[in-house]
Amino acid sequence: MMPFPTSAVRAARILVAGDIMVDRYWFGEVERISPEAPVPVVRVMRREDRLGGAANVARNIVALGAQASLLGVVGADEAGAEVERMANEAGIIACLVQDPATPTTLKMRVLGRQQQLLRVDFEEGPDASCLSRIEARARELLAQHDLLVLSDYAKGALGGVQALIAAARDAGVPILVDPKGHLYQRYHGATLITPNRAEMQEAVGRWQDENELMQRAQALREHLELEALLVTRSEQGMTLFTAAGREHVDAYAHEVFDVSGAGDTVLATLAVMRAAGLGWTDAMRWANRAGGIVVGKLGTSIVTAGELS
């Protein structure tokens, strides 16, 4: 593999737009079962908040040495203030749209002895006025960036995704999308989408062999007018489809501990390498390595340039 392109990465400017969330972890000890119900009692010893969703993509971009701006919706609440604080602390340029009527998306996980026991989600979608503000802000920011990343977690921030893709195309900025669901027509005109194996099966149906996957992937890529389509396949690695054909890399992971946020790391690395001028195949190889490193960590985590190189 080619050396890590440090200078080019430092010059890369990437705009990340999408669903922002806080990943909240409560770590504790489990020593008894509750007398009220057959559930473990967790004595919380430590609390930690991490940037999640689109914010985790931005955090990974900065960790690799590139510049990241973050665009999305937060509420006028404690979690929203925490997003801004953590973003600033990480070196991310926060371009947040605040919606007093919508709480910041929050995923709270309770862990005992390093095992997740419970997850509680707090979420509501933004209204149409928020989506209009996101589009207007994106049009202002695109001229200052080399690449647009759209991180879709189906929380509503990308309800106007087609307008964002059109704005980026007008500005001549490539668009990388981490999709959600199976209705991929909404991503028509993007440069690349990165469905995982399950998402790809939702979109094109189950395939019997690699040849059938290639036929279905290429048909989808051409239908959506994409330059490339990358299917992330967990222990089977990653497969890239372009007009030139098919490229595949085997999984890099040595030990899988937690897959939370692994897709964010892959997307961020792919974006950084493309913004640094690498071709699709080389960018995929770096992204595969980063994904293999991050699944060996607990919770929503990052990979640094030092770890990757």
From TrEMBL:
GO molecular function per UniProt: heptose 7-phosphate kinase activity; heptose-1-phosphate adenylyltransferase activity; phosphotransferase activity, alcohol group as acceptor
Keywords, comma-separated and alphabetical: Kinase, Transferase
Domain Carbohydrate kinase PfkB: 13-302
CDD domains found in the cross-reference section: RfaE_like (cd01172)
Coiled-coil blocks: none
Superkingdom of the source species: Bacteria
A cellular component annotation (GO) from this entry: cytosol
InterPro entries (UniProt xref): Carboh/pur_kinase_PfkB_CS (IPR002173), PfkB_dom (IPR011611), RfaE_dom_I (IPR011913), Ribokinase-like (IPR029056)
UniProt xrefs under NCBIfam families: rfaE_dom_I (TIGR02198)
Protein name stated in the entry: D-glycero-beta-D-manno-heptose-7-phosphate kinase
Encoding gene, per UniProt annotation: rfaE1
